[in-house]
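re: ur question from yesterday

yeah so i grabbed the chain u mentioned. its 466 aa long if i counted rite. heres the sequnce exactly as i have it in my notes:
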Amino acid sequence: MNFEKIIDSYKDDIIKSTQELIRIKSVEGEPKPGMPFGEGPNEALEYALRLAESMGFETLNVDGYAGHADLGEGEEVVGVLVHLDVVPEGDGWTYPPYVAEIHDGKIYGRGAIDDKGPTIASLYAMKAIKESGVKLNKKIRIIFGTNEESGWGGINYYLKKVKAPNLAFTPDADFPVIHGEMGILIFNIEKKFERKCNCAVKINYIKGGNRPNMVPDYCEALLEVADEKKEFVKEKLDKFVEKTGYKLSLDDRGKHVIIKSYGISAHGSTPQAGKNAISQLIAFLGEVVECDCDASEFVKLYNRKIGMEYNGQSIGCGFEDSVSGKLVFNVGVIDMNEEEVKVSVNIRYPIKYKREDIYNGMEEELKGTGVRIVHIEHLPPIYIPSEDTLVQKLMSVYREFTGDYDSKPITIGGGTYARAMKNAVAFGPLFPGQEELAHQKDEYIAVDDLIKITKLYAKALYELAR
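ran it thru and got these structure tokens back, copy pasting raw so excuse formatting
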């Protein structure tokens, strides 16, 4: 069945709907009655359900945690798992993050590729199937999650209330098919400071980052600096910047100075694609903080055990396997004052390992330092063999549509809703070799790609539901 002409006729509507959804700032906020994740995610959910209803689909809002829209009948259900929430926008955008301006054929905005553009593409793919009049033997259901970026409470609540689809894909990663996802750990590295600082260069605070699963693009430290040390700090900074190429600046405020570190945001699963503002700043502080107080000792410990590494090798968890590659280690947030420090870390660990392996390795390396590891969240790895029927069907659709017969199913460090249920995989929206801008400034989706994935998802859903 050829859905392409139908979808071409939707082009203006697809663009308009994508822009409208991006304009909703759906970062998780304070809970309110009927809005468990705040006003923004709830507004996005209500928008998606209204749009689905206007297309003639039956919808359900599950207490504001999630919702769905159905096409067709049948006992078996083919699911599309999407999310409407976004990470904070960060700084340094060329175009406003919640205006959805179009430049050079690209729609710019937070959530454009992760996951609002693919959400709209999936909805219009369902509309094209409906309008074509083809016969389906299974029901197609698009499920709208509302806090994928910050805890999965929405999809977990939904799946306690509504039976999971029999099989599903989520348009929230890469093509061709993601058949494995690494395990994900979020935890804090914490230490109480007992030996207080009376140094000539004293750290009052260090603050930086937005979320554990984002490479931080800004971090600052307030230092109390004795007069005789002012020039020392300034000279050290100039030499450090010249040596490393890191972007740091000094704001002289008399008795205090603020050191500002500017990085480049990226997804926590690909920290090498960004520049970690926290690690840059602490690397510099290691050059100027000289005493033996606990704050200074923590700076030294951080530089020895974490530093600028992405794979956790110095902190005892530098594992890798043949299926998914090396562990990925991302420091996302720091909050340090004169009393204590908390560093939030996001790890993607290889499929063949267990979380106990990761924690045991780190605890061994940190033994005797007074540092605690405080567990926050764990998502186990998933793996579906490449010979599986779902994987093979989606690969067949992808190859026929794109003519790409070379690409094979892959594993990733990212975490998608495919983990939320059995028999689910990630499928797009990024094509091989395309730039990954999820969680980064100037996130966009190209209009041509938006239409292309709509056609591809229509074909995939038809093949899975026929």
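noticed a couple things. Residues 261 and 280 are 7 Å apart (CA to CA). also The first strand starts at residue 58 and ends at 62.
anyway ttyl
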